[in-house]
Amino acid sequence: MNFEGLDPGLAEYAPAMHSALDPVLDAHLNPSLLQNVELDPEGVALEALPVQESVHIMEGVYSELHSVVAEVGVPVSVSHFDLHEEMLWVGSHGGHATSFFGPALERYSSFQVNGSDDIRQIQSLENGILFLTKNNLKYMARGGLIIFDYLLDESDDMHSLLLTDSSTLLVGGLQNHILEIDLNTVQETQKYAVETPGVTIMRQTNRFFFCGHTSGKVSLRDLRTFKVEHEFDAFSGSLSDFDVHGNLLAACGFSSRLTGLACDRFLKVYDLRMMRAITPLQVHVDPAFLRFIPTYTSRLAIISQSGQCQFCEPTGLANPADIFHVNPVGPLLMTFDVSASKQALAFGDSEGCVHLWTDSPEPSFNPYSRETEFALPCLVDSLPPLDWSQDLLPLSLIPVPLTTDTLLSDWPAANSAPAPRRAPPVDAEILRTMKKVGFIGYAPNPRTRLRNQIPYRLKESDNEFDNFSQVTESPIGREEEPHLHMVSKKYRKVTIKYSKLGLEDFDFKHYNKTLFAGLEPHIPNAYCNCMIQVLYFLEPVRCLIQNHLCQKEFCLACELGFLFHMLDLSRGDPCQGSNFLRAFRTIPEASALGLILADSDEASGKGNLARLIQRWNRFILTQLHQDMQELEVPQAYRGAGGSFCSSGDSVIGQLFSCEMENCSLCRCGSETVRASSTLLFTLSYPEGSNSDKTGKNCDFAQVLKRSICLEQNTQAWCDNCEKYQPTIQTRNICHLPDILVINCEVNSLKEADFWRMQAEVAFKMAMKKHGGEISKSKEFALADWKELGSPEGMLMCPSIEELKNVWLPFSIRMKMTKNKGLDVCNWTDGDEMQWGPARAEEEHGVYVYDLMATVVHILDSRTGGSLVAHIKVGETYHQRKEGVTHQQWYLFNDFLIEPIDKHEAVQFDMNWKVPAILYYIKRNLNSKYNLNIKNPIEASVLLAEASLARKQRKTHTTFIPLMLNEMPQVGDLVGLDAEFVTLNEEEAELRSDGTKSTIKPSQMSVARITCVRGQGPNEGIPFIDDYISTQEQVVDYLTQYSGIKPGDLDAKISSKHLTTLKSTYLKLRFLIDIGVKFVGHGLQKDFRVINLMVPKDQVLDTVYLFHMPRKRMISLRFLAWYFLDLKIQGETHDSIEDARTALQLYRKYLELSKNGTEPESFHKVLKGLYEKGRKMDWKVPEPEGQTSPKNAAVFSSVLAL
C-alpha cells in the first residue's frame, strides 16, 4: 500500500478516493463494502459478504482481510474478540449487539441489548456474553437469550468492567466507587471507595489491579485489599488509553493547553519494578488507542482516530515507516481490540463498519477455540414476497386452503348493519378524584391504561377461568337477574344500604338469626372477614390470642384479641375490624405481598380473591407467630399471660407448626439435609391431571400426602460441585400439627377440572356403593333431624343432592411411620366403628383430623366475586351464646350468618364455588390446651404516661390522671366524649328521581378521647384527654365540629398530650371490664368509631334519655341551653366541655325524673322541650347585649306556663 502524502491528522476521506456512489447512501460510505449487501427499506444491512478475494495477505505483516457493516450509520461503541469461540462481538451506540463468526465475518447473531444507552464494554464468558451499559449489566447467551439482567443505581455512569476470576466482576465508572458483583448469585458483594473518581479503564496483572482515571492518573491497587499501592500522574488533561505487559505500563492521553485539551504525542512508559517513568516515546500519530502485541517482541500498536496505526517498541524510537492506514468508512475510528492469539486486529468506525486486519490469510482468534453451535437451517419453503406498502394488492394472492363452504364475504350487505362499540365507562378512580370548573371536569391520570389506547374486552368466555365481566359501576344498577347467574342468594355479596340515619334503620337481623356476630364489609381490605371468623371459631386460638398483650403499637395479635373479645360480647350484632385492619395496613410485609388493596380494586373485584386470601392466610399465621414469639416479660404489660409460650416458640407455632426435613440429593451423590418448619401446606396436584377425560380416581388423602411429602426436581447449588446442579429435593414430616391448614391453589382451569373430575368419579362410586338406598331428595324429617345434629353411631344414607360435587372428606386419618414416612387415608364414621375411637389410636401415633372450615371463592360476574366461609361451630360456642351443647355448620358471608347442612360445606360447583382454604383439626383438640382466658389488662394502664409529642409542656396539660385511691369501681360514672377526623370522604350518587343514595360512608378515625370523673370531690375533672397519633392521611380535620387542627396529631409539632390509639383503647377496655357506666351524648357512634363493644347496661346516652319515640334526636348544644342555660360549642367543639355537659344533663335527668320513678312528669318536660325546639327551629339564640342569668334555665319558664 502506498501512503505517500498522507496527512497524519486526516479526519475524513476525499470523495475522489471512492468510485461512483449510490445517491441514497452516505457520502462517505465505501460502496465496495456493500457489494452483495442487501438493504431493507430503512437502509439497515441484512447481510454482508467479504470484499474481493484478490486481497493478498503477506505473512507476518498486518493487512486488511475483511470489512463488514454492523449497522449502517450507527457508530460502533465497542468491539471484542470472543475468548472461547472464533467470534468477534460488536456493540453500537444504539445499544445493539452483533456477532460475526470466523475470519470471513459471517453474521452469527444480532439482538438489542439496551433501548436507550450505548454498549460501553463487552466481556465474553464460557456460557455467554456480558454487556455493560450506563447503569445496566446484562448477561446474555450468544444467541441473544437473557441469562440475567442486573440493574445498577440510576445515578451510576458505568464505563468499564474487569473479570478478576471466573465468578467475580468489577464495574467502574464516573462515580467515586467500584462495585464487586458475584456472577453466581448476581448480587453486589462489595463497594470499594475510590479516592479519585472517574474509573474508565481497568487492567490486571498478577501483582496489581490498575485503574485509569479521567483526571489523567493511573492508580495501582492491591488485589486483595484494594488499597492504593502507587499512583502515576500520567497526563495533565485526561487519559485516553493504557495497557500493561510484563513490567511495563504504557499510556496515552491529553495534556492541558491554553486553548484546551490537546492530544499528547508522547506516550508515557513506566517501569513497574522501580515504579518510575522511563523515557517517553514520541510517535507520529495522535494516539487514541494502544495495545501491547507481544509476539516475538513487546510491540506496541498505537492507533489514531483518523485511522493511522503505528507499531513500535516501547523502549525504542518510533519509525515513520511503520505506519499503515486503516480505511474507515466514517471519519473516525471508535474502537480497537486485539485477539487473544495476537493474529487479528479489529477496528470499528463511526459509520457502523468493522474492519478486520490479520497477519495471515487464515488467522485464528484464540489459541484453543471450542466449536461454535449454529442454528438449524429453515426447513420451511419460503412464501412469495408481498409488498405490504401497496394497498391495491388483491387478497387472493395470499394462499388459503380450498373450501366448499360459503364464505363470510358472500353475506349480502343488506342483511348486515353497523354495530359500533359502546364507549367503556369512565374509571371510578377518575370520577372519585375529579374536580369541576363550570361544566369541565379534570382529574389526575390514574395510569391504568396506555396512552391513546382504549382496550375493549371480549365477552366472557368459558376458557378463561379468572376473567369476569365488568362490574356495574353503580350498585343501583346491580339488579338481581336469576337467569344470568347461578349463584345461590345466600352466597352473593352482601352490601349495607345506607339511609339518612346511616346504619340505624338497617335490619341486620334479617341476615342473621343467630347470636353469633358477623363482620361489616365496608372497611378497606375487609376481604379477610371470612378468615377472621375461621380463626375465632378455633377455640385454642380464640383463648390464647386473648391472653396476649404487648406494648407494640401495631401488633396484629393484640388487635385480633380485641376483636375476638368484641365477638364474644356481641349477641348477634355485627362487629367491625377497623382497628385490626388499620394495624394490618401499617405492616410493610403486607404491602410487599400485595395484600393491601386499593378501594377501587376492592369495590370492582379486581384481582384474584382466591390467591389473595391464600396469601393472607400464610401471612397472618406467620405474623401472629412472630408477634407472640416476640413477647417477653420486660416488654409486656403486667399480667399479659406470657406463660403460654416458651422461649423461641409461640402458641401459634404449637398449634400450626409442622417440623420438616428437607433433603437435597445432587446427581454427584452429595446429600444435604436441613430442618425447617411450616405453618401450612399447599396442595400439589398430579401432573397431567386433566388429560384423561375418562376420570381417574384419586383420593384427597393421596393428593394431600403428595403435597406434604413433596418430591421435585430442581436446579440447586451444590457445595461439592460448586455450581448449580439438577437435584432431587424431598420433604419428610417429623411432627404432625394440631391444626392442619391447606391452601387449595385452584388458580386455573387445570386445577378446577381436576376437582370437577374427581367429584364426578366420587359420585359414581357412591352411587354404586349405596345402590337403591339413595333417595332422590332429602326427606323433610331427615333434614330437620340433621339440623339438630345426628346422634353418634347412627349412620344415615345420603341423598343424591348431598353426593354431587363432593370430593373432600370430612375426616382424614394420619399416621407417622418409623422411617419418617406418612400414611394418609380418608376416614368415615364407618371406619371409626371398625377401628375404634380416635383417642385410643393416638397412643400409637395415629391421629384423626376433622374438617373444621372451608373458605371458598364465589365467582359472580355482577359483583366481582366474594369470599365466604363454612365453619363447623363447636359445643363451647353454642354453650356460651345459646345455652345448648351441639355442633352445627354455618355459612359466614360477612354479616350474613345462616346454618347449613354439613354436606353443603364440601360441595364445590366449580362454575361458581371454588375452594380456597381448608382447616382440619385434631379430634379432641380442646382437651390439650388451657382454655381459660385471663384478662391481661390491669389498672396500671390508667396511670400517668409520657406523651409522644416533642413540644408538649406540663403547663399545657388538660387533665389530671387518676391516683391509686381514685381507681373506678363497678357502677361509677364516667363522662366520655370523642372527636374524629375523616380519612376518606363519603361516596354517594344521585338516583334518577333526584334522591341521594350513599354507596360507601365516610371513613372516620378517632382523634381525641376525653374521660371526666363522674363523682367525688374532683367531679368534672378529666383524667383522660388523649390526642391519638395517626400515620394515615387525613382528608378533613373537621375543625369546626371536632376542634382538631392540622398538626395536633403530628408528634413532631403537636403541643397536645399525644398517644397511640392502642394505649387509649386499653384504658377504655379496662373501664368497660371493671363495670363503669359511661355518660355521654351520641355514644353509639363514638364506640363504633373507636371500635369498642360496650354492654348496653353500661351506656347512659343523653341523646336517648331526652328523646321521645318517633321524634328527632336533639343536639347537646340545644339541651345544654334549654336545661342548663349553657351556651357550648360556640366556635368549635371541645370534648372536655361536651363530656362535662353530658354529666350535668344526666344529673338533671335524675332530678327531673326522680331517679326514673316519675316517668309521666318527665314526659311533660320532654313535650315542652320539643315545643320550644320547634318554635326556635332547634337553634340556640345568639346573645344580644347581656346574657341571661346562669340560674334561669329555659325549661323552668316553660313549665310555669
Structure description:
It comes from Hipposideros armiger (Great Himalayan leaf-nosed bat). This protein has 24 helices and 55 strands. It has 1201 residues and is α+β, with helices and mostly antiparallel strands. Helix 4 runs antiparallel to helix 5 (578-585) and helix 21 (1116-1124) packs across helix 22 (1135-1152). Among the domains are: 510-647, Cathepsin B, Chain A; 939-1200, Nucleotidyltransferase, domain 5 (2-Layer Sandwich), CATH 3.30.420.
Secondary structure elements and pairings:
Blueprint: E1 38-39, E2 45-47, E3 63-69, E4 76-81, E5 87-92, E6 96-101, E7 106-112, E8 121-124, E9 129-132, E10 136-140, E11 146-151, E12 158-163, E13 168-173, E14 177-182, E15 187-193, E16 199-204, E17 208-213, E18 217-222, E19 228-233, E20 238-245, E21 248-257, E22 260-263, E23 266-271, E24 276-277, E25 281-282, E26 289-294, E27 298-303, E28 308-312, E29 323-325, E30 333-338, E31 344-349, E32 353-358, H1 428-433, E33 435-437, E34 440-442, H2 529-536, H3 539-546, H4 556-569, H5 578-585, H6 588-592, H7 599-604, H8 609-629, H9 651-656, E35 658-666, E36 671-678, E37 681-682, H10 700-708, E38 711-718, E39 723-733, E40 739-743, H11 749-770, H12 780-788, H13 800-803, E41 811-816, E42 822-827, H14 829-835, H15 838-841, E43 846-858, E44 866-873, H16 875-881, E45 888-893, E46 896-900, E47 913-922, E48 973-984, E49 987-990, E50 996-1000, E51 1003-1013, E52 1022-1028, H17 1039-1042, E53 1058-1059, H18 1061-1074, E54 1077-1080, H19 1083-1090, E55 1099-1101, H20 1102-1105, H21 1116-1124, H22 1135-1152, H23 1159-1175, H24 1194-1200
